[in-house]
Amino acid sequence: MLGKCLAALGIMTWLVAAGLAHAQDKVRVVATFSILADLAKNVGGDAVEVASLVGPNGDAHAYAPSPADAKLLADAKLVLVNGLGFEGWIDRLVKASGTKAQVVAASKGVKARHAKGEPGHGHGHDHGTSDPHAWQSVANAKIYVGNIRDALVKADPEAKSTYEANASAYLAKLDALDREVKATIAAIPAARRKIITTHDAFGYFAAAYDVQFIAPQGVSTEAEVSARDLAKIIRQVKAQKIPAVFMENVTDPRLMRRIAEETGAKIGGKLYSDALSEPSGPAPTYIDMMKNNLKEFSAALAG
């Protein structure tokens, strides 16, 4: 009996050791927020271990890094950031961590949308003049995927074929998603493609798919909305007969409720703009997020 127990213990020890060795073989990747982490997981597959600094339903605009985050960066081989000023805190964190990891901006090559300095179109804030929410256009998400693939190949050349195959398969899924978004939006009457959202996170979606978005806050959720700006938005909603207002998972819902009460606009379902949902929610992946938002837009605007 003792011999069998020792043998079983030996097998368990070997399995644990094998598991640890396998984990150590994986490329450690740190992404700044959940959407970027999901893209990295799709490209990296089983060859990578991905951690996200800002988790599901987290607001990267207002994030305050912790000492544990610095440790994650120090141990990483690749750090993926959005860029375009999205993570105002990332440079300080990279410096504090002392990481030797390659730091790559996934948005490299995206044609940046400039935030306009007027109510409803963003005020720049810590982002400077660029709107950082480029992933809201599927075409831009494909650019992200290409940059992530190339960064992983550079970090782990031996798995080049794996990363290229994974990226190719995922890009095909994104192509199908892009076609679905275009077809669904095209079925909504052009006059009804007007939406109020909490902050200006959908500018790239608007440009790519011909939808008008109005946002009381700027491109950052940290923007304060003045009484004057709010009154202007309410007048605009009434004048243009905008059919729906939407709340996001990363923002305070009270602002949208106020606009809905003042205008009679319908409150649509929850949108996911800067962060995915928890795994059990409606938007645990980038593709799920885009489909969820598309479903909510269609239901509220179809008339």
Overall description:
With 303 residues, the chain is an alpha/beta fold. It folds into two domains: 25-177, Rossmann fold, CATH 3.40.50; 185-301, Nitrogenase molybdenum iron protein domain (Rossmann fold, 3-Layer(aba) Sandwich), CATH 3.40.50. It is built from ten helices and ten strands. Helix 2 (34-44) packs across helix 5, helix 5 packs antiparallel against helix 6 (160-186) and helix 6 packs parallel to helix 10. It is globular and about 60 Å long.
Keywords:
about 300 residues, alpha/beta, 2 domains, four-stranded parallel sheet, 10 helices
Summarize the structure.
By secondary structure, the chain is an alpha/beta fold.
Oligomerization status of the protein chains? single chain
CATH fold type of the largest domain: Rossmann fold
User: What is the number of strand segments?
Assistant: 10
Radius of gyration: 22 Å
* Helix-strand makeup class: alpha/beta
State the fourth-level CATH superfamily of the largest domain. Nitrogenase molybdenum iron protein domain
CATH class of the largest domain: Alpha Beta
